[in-house]
Amino acid sequence: MKRTPKIWILLGAVFLTACETIEIGPKAPDILLDDEPFIEAVYLSEETAEEVNTALIAAEPIVARTFGPSITPAELSGDSGNELRPYQAIEKANASAAIEPSTANYMNAIQIYPYTRGALYQVYTAPEQVTDIALQPGEELMSVSAGDTVRWVLGDTVSGAGDQAQVHILVKPIQAGLKTNLIITTSRRAYHLELHSFRETYMAAVSWRYSDQALVQRKASLQTTQAERGPHGLQLDRLRFRYEISGDKPHWRPTRVFDDSRKVYIQFPARLDQGEAPPLFVVGRDGKSQLVNYRMQGNYYVVDRLFALAELRLGEKNQDVVRIERNDLKMAAR
């Protein structure tokens, strides 16, 4: 028996297969397209995958998105040559009003911003850290409003007392990567802040310096200096220091008394206004006391007439009495 070679069997199978897949006739295609080459999947490490993603992102056009339509960086910066749209103008104004922290404005751990009306002060915070926003001493807090009160913890407290009482707004985010705004209104001004939260970087305290504060302090200093100088318009060559002070020694006891031949000036210790001022009585020749006209100027009583003997009295029971007596009259009577 004659055997058929295996090669012919294989060739026959190929031809039969080709006949099953190739159409013959008027509807047959002009050309047969080859299948897409098979590409085997390759495992990429995390570093390599991140590099690929970065390259793909860089290849895409950069589009800045705001609450309005998509705009390009050139449009946002106003370099497109056209008039800015409303949302572009808003973002540009906010960017120019933002005041960032700087090493030149730090005092220890406190960032001291120069106060400017309408500025957007940038405050950096971090989870598990509290940032202290300290207002001007003597400033009364009216309200605190934040854009996000769910993911930001806000509180306030006061340090000091009286005129030196200082309000502190305490801020803490619950996680990193947050941003919101904060508006603080007081009896003197309004503060606008933008809060940012980071994983570790945070500002321990924020405060302000005020251009008008120096003027107020200067004015107060001038008023104090004028009070210490005493009444104005005195002629030194006419002053007569011819009075003796005797009697009790309360905190308001005068330090010296003099006249200019027309009026008597009684000088008291500084800050007589912190307590009750004693009334002045002039003692006549008959020993009776009478109130006289006088006015307070700084730390002085200015009496509109001369007298030989006067008394300062304060209280009803156990009165404090301080006597003021001219010593030249006593010497002339001897």
Order of strands, widest sheet: 2-3-11-5-8-7
| Global morphology | rod-shaped
Tally of alpha and pi helices: 6
Please outline the major beta sheet.
6 strands, mixed
Structural class: alpha+beta
* Radius of gyration, taken over Cα atoms and rounded to an integer in Å: 45 Å
Percent of residues in helices comes to: 10-25%
The total strand number stands at 20
* Unreliable residue runs: 14-20, 59-70
**Average pLDDT:** 78
% residues in beta strands: 25-35%
The first-to-last residue Cα distance is 179 Å
Describe this structure in words.
With 334 residues, the chain is of the alpha+beta class. Helices cover 22% and strands 31% of the residues. The strands form 4 sheets. The protein has a 6-stranded mixed beta sheet with strand order 2-3-11-5-8-7, with no helix packed on it. The protein is rod-shaped, with a radius of gyration of 45 Å. The N and C termini lie far apart (179 Å).
Nutshell version of this structure?
With 334 residues, the chain is an alpha+beta fold. It has helices at residues 6-21, 46-59, 73-77, 86-97, 211-229, 327-333; strands at 98-99, 106-107, 110-114, 120-125, 131-134, 141-146, 152-159, 166-173, 179-186, 190-197, 205-209, 243-247, 256-259, 264-267, 280-283, 289-291, 294-297, 300-303, 309-314, 320-326.
